[in-house]
Amino acid sequence: MSSPEWRKSSYSNGDGGNCVEIADKGPGPVLVRDSKTPTGPVLVLNPTAWADFLSRL
After folding, report:
1. What is the pTM of this model?
2. β-strands 30-34, 20-23: how paired?
3. What is the pLDDT of residues 7-24, one digit of tens each?
4. I need a labelling partner for 40 at 20 to 30 A (CA). Which of 3, 6, 20, 57 fits?
5. How far, in Å, CA of 42 to CA of 31, rounded?
6. Within 10 A of 32 (CB to CB), how many other CB atoms are there?
């Protein structure tokens, strides 16, 4: 299994504030983590749940 390709949210700022990263390449689950703790827990969402989450923001 390859390492996920993480990217920062476009809403994150550059001064170390609240930053969310996601890895969503390919047809599998969407991974979400706090960029301040990259070795911490990862939220795993199926694509349908991720789309539902985004539509409710």
Report:
1. 0.79
2. antiparallel
3. 987 767 666 567 889 998
4. 57
5. 6
6. 19
